[in-house]
Amino acid sequence: MKLLIAAAALTFALVSVSTQFPETPAGFDDKPNGMVDDATHQADQMKFDEVEQVSDGLGPLYNAQSCRECHQSPVSGGASQVTELRVGHQGPDGRFRTPDIPIARGAEVITGRSLVNDRAICPNAVFPDKEIQERVPETESIRTLRLSLSVLGDGFVEAIADQTLIDLAKQQCKSSHQTICGQVLYVPIVEAPGQMGVGRFGWKDQHASLLSFAGDAYLNEMGITNRLQPNEVTNLCNSVSEPNDKPGPDGLSDIDRFARFIRATKAPARDSQVANSAVANKGLGLFDKIGCATCHVETLTTAPAGTKINGGTFVIPPALGSLTLHPFGDFLMHDVGTGDGILQAIREHYGHRVFQQMVGYLSKQDFESSRNKIRTAPLWGVRLRPRLMHDGASLTLLEAITRHRGEASQIIKRFEKLKRPDQEAIIEFLKSL
């Protein structure tokens, strides 16, 4: 009972502070949230949707040919059912180790990353004898698939103050008597050398900045080198000068446009017809009552316009500042019994330069403890996903709920004790998101 009261008090405190601010724009109309004009947003979306070719620098190892390929349902920037493969193994000391993956018949070994790319650009007409496709060695016993996440509304998420997430983690832990404690990870801001921020993007909270996130994905998912990630995973079969992503006449490169596109997207909209139903409203009340909202936080606010974030490289514009968003997530790391055992690979996500510069700072972060933790999935837009959880292994909302363990164990026990109509009301509420 004390935990229920504490969870309700936490939810009330967050909502009462937040409701003084206007709501974030929401919708799936491909229109910007007010940060840029329609023409700019459409041009940025075209770049986001653009299919990369080998002549653009695609590969040599890659997973997708465009951002949209992994972020497209129901509109550009949305989620998809595309998965990526990550593997590793446990070393003699019990710590996670990234794989050593031989390519080109053993002529080269890919190291320092847990991601295994599904595709390669050769053999081809220019390199008919090169075999560089990555394959998982038998030694890599830790294996998982991860679903691509939606990036809609992430401009608002980026604009949440670090301190807001830090305070939320502390409040969770205190109000739950140490049973639910979101982990805050400080990660490098790649575009601001030497600066770190609170991670909130990616399943392992590996990025705090959307520009850092874009640079990482462009290299590791598409093989396109850029100013933040200038080193190819392999130079075999590579015939395009580095970096592949060069500034245009306006001084902006592709990663700048990707970040601007994401920042200008609207938040995922709810299904108003379902949301206004008596059953869904009852479900929301039960969702809060049994403690789901402790991690799936309904309401957060962004920092004021004019606030400098990302190591001073980005100033929150009026369109993103002092707004109320309803992500139904806390963007913190939790152990809910579904962790995949994969530790984020520092060199992979931040590049060799940042790894060398910040090895001292990074060693102070307790990354190892996050191996079996996953960032709380924000539930906005969850009704549009047929496969759920980080690996897509849960196919119904009920399966996703009852799969929770770890920090969520007591909450799931409360859910399972509910009468069937009450359980169905919670599921109906989720169908409104």
**How many separate domains make up the residues?**
1
Q: Sheet bearing the most strands, described?
A: 4 strands, antiparallel
- What share of the residues lie within helices? 25-40%
Unreliable spans:
1-9, 11-18
Shape: globular
Strand content: 5-15%
CA-based gyration radius: 21 Å
Tell me the span between the first and last alpha carbons.
28 Å
Structural class: alpha+beta
SSE topology string: HHEEEEEEEEHHEEHHHHEEEEEHEHHH
Number of distinct helices: 12
Number of separate strands: 16
Average pLDDT metric: 93
Question: What are the key terms here?
Answer:
single chain, 30% helix, 12 helices, four-stranded antiparallel β-sheet, 16 strands, alpha+beta, 433 residues
Give me a quick take on this structure.
With 433 residues, the chain is α+β, with helices and mostly antiparallel strands. The chain has one domain. The protein is built from 12 helices and 16 strands.
Report what the structure shows.
- The chain has 433 residues and is an alpha+beta fold.
- The protein has one domain.
- The protein has 12 helices and 16 strands.
- The chain has helices at 2-18, 38-49, 154-158, 162-175, 210-222, 254-263, 272-275, 278-289, 346-363, 397-403, 409-417, 420-430; strands at residues 61-62, 83-90, 96-97, 101-103, 108-110, 115-116, 119-120, 142-147, 186-188, 196-198, 300-301, 308-309, 314-315, 324-325, 333-334, 374-375.
- Strands 2, 3, 6 and 8 form a 4-stranded antiparallel sheet that branches. A two-stranded antiparallel sheet has the order 1-7. Strands 4-5 form a two-stranded antiparallel sheet.
- The longest helix has 18 residues, at 346-363.
- The two termini are 28 Å apart.
- Mean pLDDT is 93; it is low at 1-9 and 11-18.
